[in-house]
Write a structure and sequence with these properties.
Keywords (chain B): Thiamine pyrophosphate
Number of strands of chain B: 5
Oligomer: heterodimer
Strand order of the largest sheet of chain B: 1-2-3-5-4
CATH architecture of the largest domain in chain A: 3-Layer(aba) Sandwich
Number of strands of chain A: 12
Order of helices and strands of chain B: HHEHHEHEHHEHEH
Bound molecules: thiamine diphosphate, magnesium ion
Number of domains of chain B: 1
CATH superfamily of chain B: Thiamin diphosphate (ThDP)-binding fold, Pyr/PP domains
CATH superfamily of the largest domain in chain A: Thiamin diphosphate (ThDP)-binding fold, Pyr/PP domains
Number of helices of chain A: 13
Family (chain B): Belongs to the transketolase family.
Structural class of chain A: alpha/beta
CATH topology of the largest domain in chain A: Rossmann fold
Shape of chain B: globular
CATH class of the largest domain in chain A: Alpha Beta
Cofactor (chain A): thiamine diphosphate
Cofactor (chain B): thiamine diphosphate
Protein name (chain B): Transketolase
């Protein structure tokens, strides 16, 4: 199992920690920032925030529908409201509040889905969010952002604070290495980041699948001389169509990888654009299949479904061989 | 079963809850220890359900709304013979069906729960079906006190009295704590009894660790003909292990080897007194 090395683990924090740290920084100078929780301050690493800024935190209790409705009301008065709850409950339980009170009424709530995807591993499907891209993509007026590393998370939280429309950001709780050391790195909603370049294959990941995609690209190059472009498609909506068209134009095979159901997420969003715009690249969607998800830790679930260095490399290799 | 026998069983259940949580390196310890005496009385004294009649439409149903404390339920179900206890060695492990919340892949589990605020509506539907079909089974559900702010609970509570579901009994594991703090500090739901009474329920309070009182309370069901019954069980989170009792961090704390040894010693002492 090629996991993130110990060295990398020490160097980088969980995106969750970066989120809570950034929020504290912002709140110290901006008193309009308000964090709203549903018995989720511990899981959100927000206990220190609550101690430092008690007047900028509102506790709702275990009631996620109320959380989102109240957050929308608070946001309507000009406050910068971050509604923080596990992604699974935030996007399933409160779906209509998101659709109507946040998106439709255009109340600029920042919906923060923590412990996203299969971060809760062995707690089972109630605690997994493998539906959120699919459900929320179909809601008009909602930006969907899935940062992959600490840099993207920090930028996303800062930008979200300034965004005057509804936004959903989801991330996990495991330490994530930087995707690149590039000092000129940029981050903009709606603009995918190319973190590695090559002409033989394109791998498009999002969130915590981007790092194994990079590992897979390294493996393919070392073992087979196959060179891959890797993209962190951190914004699921609006999707970066310009980048997609540019990447697809050479006819290179494309693999998408996401911590989400293979239905309705990043992969199908890309496929829909490509298909409807005349591209006929070989194409494979990797994600969690439509079945009762296997029990295990997040990393075990990733390996079970091939969302790993080996699994992504194998899929990429097959696609390249088939296309050649 | 005598109260003495029930008490001995509970010591054994507590030992096993800790054993499998330690083995899995995960679990909801505090809330399992607060509700296990109630589960003990339900499964050994009240519910007409076991491995032999689990497929029967006439069986009593138990639906655990506070799904996170599944370890207590798994241990009791294993004791009732629904599955071999050794299966629990796989709890939360790769490929196991024994995940950290109730799942129907496990024999004896009625409904998949884990997202709070689902058990009462499910139970209302199940109890309503008995009324529609003229069947005599009863439906029991257990909620956490922190779980009560979920709006679905109040929707379910309204409908239960509307349909006069006196075959329904909800139990609140009133241990006073949730994840972030005391339930009264997070979102105060007091007075729970008067709220449910206003919703058309008959309510009784009971010490959730007193086997005699629990037996008596359940023997009195339905508390009023034509009304759903609510049992507010006053419990201690982490009950039975001194350093866990009423301590927030044991909501999902896993004992380290020293703490585990200490806990087993306390349980052995409790058992010795019951001989
Ligand atoms: C809908 C939903 N929101 C949040 C959670 C996360 N969660 C699990 S247990 C818990 C606290 C429950 O407190 P309480 O109901 O009092 O249970 P107990 O004290 O018996 O453990 C929370 C917030 C969840 N499982 N479901
Ligand atoms: Mg409680």
């Amino acid at each position: 199992m090629a996991e993130i090395t110990q060295n990398e683990l020490v160097t980088y924090k969980a995106n969750l920690d970066v989120f809570s740290g950034t929020l504290q920084e912002l709140a110290s100078t901006d008193k309009t920032i308000l964090v709203v929780t549903s018995d989720s301050r511990g899981s959100g690493k927000l206990v220190p925030f609550g101690q430092k800024f008690p007047a900028q935190m509102v506790e709702i209790g275990i009631a996620e529908q109320n959380l989102v409705g109240v957050a929308a009301g608070l946001a309507s008065t000009g406050k910068k409201v971050f509604a923080v709850s596990p992604a699974c409950f935030l996007t399933a339980r409160s779906f209509e509040q998101i659709k109507t009170d946040v998106a439709y009424s255009d109340n600029p709530v920042k919906l923060i889905g923590i412990s996203a995807g299969v971060s809760y591993g062995a707690l089972g499907s109630t605690h997994h969010s493998l539906h959120d891209f699919a459900a929320l993509r179909a809601v008009h007026n909602l930006i969907i952002v899935v940062p992959a590393d600490n840099f993207e998370t920090e930028r996303a939280i800062r930008l979200a604070a300034q965004t005057e429309h509804p936004i959903y950001i989801r991330f996990g709780k495991k330490p994530m290495p930087l995707l690149t050391e590039d000092p000129n790195r940029r981050f903009e909603f709606g603009k995918g980041s190319v973190v590695r370049e090559g002409n033989d294959l394109v791998i498009i990941g999002t969130g915590e699948t981007v790092y194994p995609a990079i590992q897979a690209a390294r493996r393919l190059e070392t073992l087979y001389g196959i060179r891959s472009t890797v993209v962190s498609m951190h914004t699921i909506k609006p999707l970066d169509y310009e980048l997609l068209a540019q990447l697809a134009s050479s006819g290179v095979p494309i693999v998408t990888v996401e911590e989400h159901s293979v239905y309705g997420g990043l992969g199908e969003a890309c496929a829909s654009f490509l298909m409807q715009n005349g591209f006929r690249n070989s194409f494979k969607i990797m994600g969690i299949p439509d079945e009762y998800t296997v029990t295990g830790s997040q990393i075990e679930i990733f390996h079970h479904y091939g969302l790993s260095e080996e699994g992504i490399a194998e899929t990429g290799l097959n696609l390249v061989r088939k296309t050649a | 079963m005598t109260e003495q026998e029930l008490a001995r069983k509970s010591v054994d259940y507590r030992r096993k809850i800790l054993k499998y949580i330690v083995e899995a390196k995960a679990g909801h310890t505090g809330g399992s220890l607060s509700c296990v005496d109630i589960l003990n009385v339900l499964y050994n004294h009240v519910l007409n359900v076991g491995p032999d009649n689990f497929k029967s439409p006439l069986r009593d149903r138990y639906i655990q709304s506070k799904g996170h404390t599944v370890e207590a339920l798994y241990v009791v179900l294993a004791d009732k013979g629904f599955f071999p206890e050794a299966d629990l060695m796989t709890l939360c492990k790769y490929g196991s069906h024994y995940i950290g919340h109730p799942t129907r892949k496990v024999n004896g589990i009625e409904q998949n729960t884990g997202s709070l605020g689902h058990g009462l509506s499910l139970s209302v539907g199940t109890a309503l079906a008995a009324k529609l079909d003229g069947l005599s089974y009863r439906v029991f559900t257990m909620l956490g006190d922190g779980e009560l702010p979920e709006g679905s609970n109040w929707e379910g509570a309204l409908l239960a009295s509307h349909y006069k579901l006196d075959n329904l009994c909800a139990i609140i594991d009133n241990n006073g704590l949730q994840i972030s703090g005391a339930t009264t500090d997070v979102c105060n739901t007091d007075p729970i009894d008067r709220k449910f009474e206003a919703f058309g329920w008959e309510v009784r309070h009971v010490d959730g660790h007193d086997f005699g009182a629990l037996k008596e309370t359940f023997a009195a069901l339905p508390f009023t003909v034509g009304k759903p019954s609510l049992v507010i069980a006053h419990t201690v989170k982490g009950r039975g292990i001194s350093y866990m009792e009423n301590q927030l961090k044991w909501h999902h704390g896993v004992p380290n080897p020293d703490q585990y040894t200490h806990a087993l010693a306390e349980l052995a002492e409790a058992e010795a007194v019951l001989r």
